[in-house]
Amino acid sequence: MKLLFLHGLGQTADSWHPVMKSLSGYDCQALELFDQGRLPENLQIMQDKVKQAIEQSDEEVCLVGLSLGAMLALSMTELVSPKLKGIVSCAGQYQFVQNRAYKRQIFLFRLLPKGFFRKHGLDKLSMLTFYKSLSGFDVSQTLKETNLPIKLICGQNDPVNLKVAEELKNLIPNSSLDIIADSGHVINKDQPEELARQIQTFVESMI
């Protein structure tokens, strides 16, 4: 089974290397989701990139996403593909329609200077354009109906996403939740070996 990794905001495909190193026995690929720090105009462009990677794979695929990448992975439950066998969602959101944290984030992005974004390899205008396009994002119904096994993972020190992870656990029929100790939001950086162990356990349960 191929493991397809989707990075978060402020990260690149290389951010998954510490995790992939601990999964050396697996076929791993980390997608680069942004073009030189510029986010696409909307989520559909990234969904198409992930869909293409799934369909071009010679093996069955398990998606592994962090934050924005996890949100992207969860949105792929709308894709009807026999190759997609499971999802690992690390600190992923599933709806922004009634999401106060999302609205606060948009407000904060407007206030921050362009230099802040450049320091993190990002472009402010493309960031705002992309995040505004997510105002209607909601995959609640699809997640309620999916038969895909989904592993939910969250850092112990990530209170906002812990709440969302619990909501997702109650929403998704075939899901389980693991909380990683001594980790914040960026689990692939804080606890890469433990995250790799959780991924391996989940994948082996599907084989």
Automatic annotation (TrEMBL):
It comes from the Bacteria. Pfam families: Abhydrolase_6 (PF12697). InterPro entries: AB_hydrolase_1, AB_hydrolase_fold, AB_hydrolase_sf. Residues 3-197 form the AB hydrolase-1 domain. This is Pimeloyl-ACP methyl ester carboxylesterase. It comes from Streptococcus loxodontisalivarius.
